[in-house]
Amino acid sequence: MNNLVKNTLNLGLDEIENFNFPVDEPFMLKINNDGVIYDFIIRFSSGNKNLICCASGAHARNQKTSKGELIKPPYFDRWSWYKYFDESFIAFSDPIFYYNDEITLGWCVGDKNQWYLEVISQIISKLAKNQKIINDNILFFSSSGGGFVSVGLATLLRNSKCLINNSQFSVFNYYKKHRDNLFKILKKEFNGLSESEISNIISYRLDLIELFKREKYMPDITYYVNVCSEADIDNHCIPFVNEILELQYFKNNLTVCFYHEDKDKPHNALETTKTLRILKNFIKSELYNVE
After folding, report:
1. Whole-structure pTM value
2. Where are the beta strands (DSSP E) in 63-169?
3. 3-state DSSP helix/strand/coil percent for the chain, to nearest 5?
4. Count of domains in the chain?
């Protein structure tokens, strides 16, 4: 998926803030941080000081191009949505897909040495500073596993906001096959420690409640969830709401929007037109907007 845009930039972490990036045209950015490659598709706006960041979620490993070629990482969700917005737009991938051919969802958990979500937050922070965009005007958006990542990033970049759809809030509440594939990698990274031992060491990477406790902070969350998706309601929505009610960092900063969409796979995100309408309304009411 390296040919999605014409221009690719390769930079180090310390080069981002002062780099002269192109504006009003999409480009790919690759950051090598201690041997781990972080991939972004970016379109900076010359006339808008809002920033929308779109996280990636699960990806099948057997998808092919129209020419029959296997699609290889990096994987991006909604990367082309920049064309729908006046705002600056960033889509980013999870580096864990470079590890092996089996992993299908990584939640930006990372490896023993790097918490990918934390590094991504640092990169986005530097990109925003480069464009003179403040955290209050940053919106993280995605669905499912990408929703988990979006909430995590909004936690690390304080005062930013997140809008999520049918999100996970704990890795342990999602399907076992995804979790098992992740822990196959983590067990190698952590020298054969058990799943329980690893989970104790990096609990804040695997469960958002634990991250809120670690950071002593919970971000503003707008959460759309399909009532027709029993797995989302029973395994994610209800447990998360119950847990934050006991959390001292909960300051009425969760808005849950229930909707009814009966379809074959009710966990799948809202259709594009509905999602775009929700995003644009949110941006108009919650982010900085020039008259």
Report:
1. 0.96
2. 88-92, 138-143, 161-165
3. 35, 20, 45
4. 1
Range of the domain at 273: 8-286
pLDDT digits (tens, 9 = 90+) for 195-205: 999 999 999 99
User: In this structure, are residues 256 and 250 in contact, taking their beta carbons and an 8 Å threshold?
Assistant: no
CA atoms of 197 and 190, how far apart (whole Å): 9
Q: Is residue 3 included in any domain, yes or no?
A: no
pLDDT in tens, 61-71: 888 888 888 88
CATH number at residue 24: 3.40.50.1820
Helix (H, G, I), strand (E, B) or coil at 130: helix
Cα–Cα nearest to 90, from 149, 155, 175, 169: 149
What does R_g of the chain's alpha carbons equal in angstroms? 18
Evaluate whether 144 touches 282 at the Cβ level (below 8 Å). no
In this structure, are strands 51-54 and 27-33 parallel, antiparallel, or unpaired? unpaired
